[in-house]
């Protein structure tokens, strides 16, 4: 059966249905970036609030700014913006229908519909999941990349923006001029200090065309930092077939693990839902929580993904079943990452590592190594390089982290150990592939990509270890290198 509002009551009895009337909801949030993660995470928290009978004026209106978002919009509108969420717990699967999104705006050149919706005074939060690479960060400096063609366009044509940030600025200009007031800008992406990064993008872009508006945005809007966590695989034929096994013909179902976490700074200039009622943690130390998560979970994914791909292991669970890869994760994170992490309530660093290892080992989660390895040019600098720097500053070992970087370099060479090709898997693949081939004979070449590594090539403690590992990987193979590290 197709999911729709008309069909909700007739859905198979094994599927949990919304315990609220969608007609009672009204929009309070525009969310840009309607991928799987948002629908399994933030939209689910909203869904649970509505089931609790509160905050019905905080429903979601979806939006996108990329041409590819139009296809997602068509699929979701065809099923009244309902999403089938399938929880993949180690002891079994369950399904429910989430109805917290009530519309999906047209995806248009110039983003007129998005700007108009964000201008509506009922919209008090604009949230985003646009991936780590979507914030126009200069990888070498960490600052805003004002020279990017998209940013240059939006600065010159603020009434016809191509970026989400340009659209937000255009809406905020109208809200200021009309006396509506600001909205909260809420990043839900895996970036350390994501609220600060979002503030940087919005205010810096506004400053390029309207200094007074930039000052008003910086003074009146809020940009709370947040930490989000839930493993959400990509949707393909297998996930669509899984939804059908529950008796529901969802074109865009979402599978997810049986774990969620959301930590927020309580800094909302125009109000917020009562998220604490459904398990969201409000904290003044979001940085500590996100450091724990980014260094161990996101960083842990980067530790194992390239090795898994090189050894032709299709899923993260398969990598965890490989003794040497599992040992790599446990030793690198346990000895070179967690000693430099802040302590936060909930888990000790060791307990958190054990939790992540259990989550990665969930055989029900068909999370592919290819998906996790995607966009290493954003994820390695974001999730691995900070741990390298922390260890170097503390004078502690970096050998395992150097091995992780060497595995990424070997991955970007473009072939697995069985000789099969690795299809391009990064927005910067052409550069990465070219440098990786050169690094096969001259390993130091890889670290000279200072847009990703900064000055790490100048530190012999890391650079020498990297060169040794990459040479060993090419001469003896990935498994031998992993074994050599485990035995060291």
From TrEMBL:
One of its GO terms (molecular function) is oxidoreductase activity, acting on the CH-OH group of donors, NAD or NADP as acceptor. Keywords: Oxidoreductase. Residues 285-468 form the Mannitol dehydrogenase C-terminal domain. Residues 28-276 form the Mannitol dehydrogenase N-terminal domain. InterPro entries: 6-PGluconate_DH-like_C_sf, 6PGD_dom2, Mannitol_DH, Mannitol_DH/Oxidoreductase, Mannitol_DH_C, Mannitol_DH_N, NAD(P)-bd_dom_sf. The keyword Oxidoreductase applies. PANTHER family: MANNITOL DEHYDROGENASE 2-RELATED, MANNITOL DEHYDROGENASE DSF1-RELATED. This is Mannitol 2-dehydrogenase. It comes from Sulfitobacter guttiformis.
């Amino acid at each position: 059966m197709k999911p729709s509002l008309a069909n909700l009551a007739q859905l198979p009895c094994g599927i949990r249905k919304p315990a609220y009337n969608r007609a009672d909801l009204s929009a309070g949030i525009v969310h840009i970036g309607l991928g799987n993660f948002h629908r399994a995470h933030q939209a689910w928290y909203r869904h649970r609030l509505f089931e609790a009978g509160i905050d019905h004026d905080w429903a979601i209106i979806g939006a996108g700014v990329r041409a590819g978002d139009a296809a997602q919009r068509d699929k979701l509108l065809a099923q009244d913006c309902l999403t089938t969420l399938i929880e993949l717990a180690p002891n079994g699967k369950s399904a429910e229908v989430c109805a917290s999104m009530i519309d999906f705006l047209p995806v248009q050149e110039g983003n007129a519909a998005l700007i108009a919706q964000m201008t509506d005074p009922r919209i008090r939060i604009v949230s985003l999941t646009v991936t780590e690479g979507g914030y126009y960060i200069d990888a070498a400096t960490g600052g805003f990349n004002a020279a990017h063609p998209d940013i240059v366009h939006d600065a010159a044509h603020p009434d016809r923006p191509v970026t989400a940030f340009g659209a937000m600025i255009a809406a905020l200009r109208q809200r200021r001029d009309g006396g509506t007031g600001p909205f909260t800008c809420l990043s839900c992406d895996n970036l350390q200090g994501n609220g600060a990064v979002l503030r940087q993008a919005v205010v810096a872009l506004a400053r390029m065309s309207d200094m007074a508006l930039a000052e008003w945005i910086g003074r009146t809007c809020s940009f709370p930092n947040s930490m989000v966590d839930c493993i959400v695989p990509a949707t393909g034929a297998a996930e669509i077939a899984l939804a059908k096994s529950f008796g529901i013909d969802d074109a865009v179902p979402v599978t997810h693990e049986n774990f969620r976490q959301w930590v927020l700074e309580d800094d909302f200039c125009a109000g917020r839902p009562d998220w604490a009622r459904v398990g969201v943690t409000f904290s003044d130390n979001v940085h500590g929580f996100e450091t724990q998560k980014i260094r161990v979970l996101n960083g842990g994914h980067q530790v194992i993904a390239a090795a898994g791909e090189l050894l032709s292991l299709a899923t993260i669970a398969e990598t965890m079943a490989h003794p040497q890869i599992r040992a790599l994760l446990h030793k690198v994170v346990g000895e070179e990452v967690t000693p430099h992490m802040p302590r936060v309530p909930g888990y000790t660093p060791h307990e958190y590592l054990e939790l992540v290892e259990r989550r990665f080992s969930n055989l029900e989660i068909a999370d592919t190594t290819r998906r996790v390895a995607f966009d290493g040019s954003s994820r390695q600098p974001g999730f691995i390089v900070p741990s390298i720097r922390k260890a170097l500053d503390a004078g502690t070992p970096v050998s395992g982290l150097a091995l992780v970087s060497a595995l990424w370099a070997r991955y970007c060479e473009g072939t697995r150990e069985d000789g099969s090709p690795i299809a391009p898997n990064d927005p910067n693949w052409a550069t990465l592939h070219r440098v990786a081939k050169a690094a096969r004979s001259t390993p130091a070449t890889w670290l000279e990509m200072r847009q990703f590594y900064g000055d790490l090539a100048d530190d012999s403690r890391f650079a020498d270890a990297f060169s040794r590992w990459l040479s060993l990987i090419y001469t003896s193979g990935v498994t031998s290198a992993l074994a050599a590290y485990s035995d060291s």
